[in-house]
Amino acid sequence: MRATDLEAVAARLDEAARHARPIAGGSTGLTDTGEAYAVQEALVARMTARGDRITGFKLGFTSLAKMRQMGVSDLIHGRITDRMRIADGGRYDLGGLIHPRVEPEIAFLLGDTLRPGGDPAAAVAAVAPALEVIDSRYDGFVFSLPEVIADNTSAAGYAVGPWSAPGDLAGLGVLLELDGRLAQAGSTSAILGHPLRALAAAARLAGELPAGTVILAGAATAAVPLPPGTHVRATVATLGSVQFGTEEEPAGDPGPRRADRTPEGSS
Ligand code: OOG
Ligand code: MG
């Protein structure tokens, strides 16, 4: 595809996100992952031009549970920004999102630059339980691999719990609860066999990650729909919990943005 066509796909995805109006998967013409990352770069550039500051890096499809759920089987990566940040224990407004889902993650904080082929364990300053909100800009979360890459890997929000010094991260239990009810359960070993492998992969894919970067290693379980008025908590054994509450749906006229939304499971 020509550069102007790639830019046009970025503009469509940007508009889809800004107006909560999904586009059809399969409609982008994207077939090449290299071109898809060029679109992602253009999309993220639009966000930073509006004042978003990049805080980190996220990986996707690092667990079998996620690959199976989404029907894709390749590791992908995207960017997270300060505007996506949700305060631990805070409130989160779903207004303006299309069909949000939430998934439990592990976050790494780099204390040193991590270069491709470098030792991920040596570069990590801290690790924390995390929650990621994903919101595909494609109708019904149906997309091809290049399309989800172009869409900044469905990134929409993230919350990070208390940071701990990195200990043994193998085989830690991961729980996702909605209103105190167990929604998903898994293990940190579901993430490429060990979450540090996700970090090594991030360095390989990103080229070089500077100190201070937050890296989401990818969900250990499948994602679940995130409704309004819900308390969400992820717990990772030994690391603790991270949580937030989603705002209630506003009463009365939902307004045009919400009218355009197609929530999961609605008829
Ligand atoms: C893509 C995002 C994948 C993960 O943790 O695997 C991801 C999607 O599922 O729409 O964030
Ligand atoms: Mg994720």
UniProtKB/TrEMBL annotation:
Residues 255-267 have a biased composition (Basic and acidic residues). InterPro entries: Fumarylacetoacetase-like_C, Fumarylacetoacetase_C_sf, Hydratase-Decarb/MhpD_sf. GO terms for cellular component: cytoplasm. It holds the Pfam family FAA_hydrolase. Keywords: Lyase. Residues 101-243 form the Fumarylacetoacetase-like C-terminal domain. The keyword Lyase applies. Residues 243-267 are annotated as: Disordered. GO terms for molecular function: 2-oxopent-4-enoate hydratase activity. PANTHER family: 2-KETO-4-PENTENOATE HYDRATASE, ACID HYDRATASE. This is 4-oxalocrotonate decarboxylase.
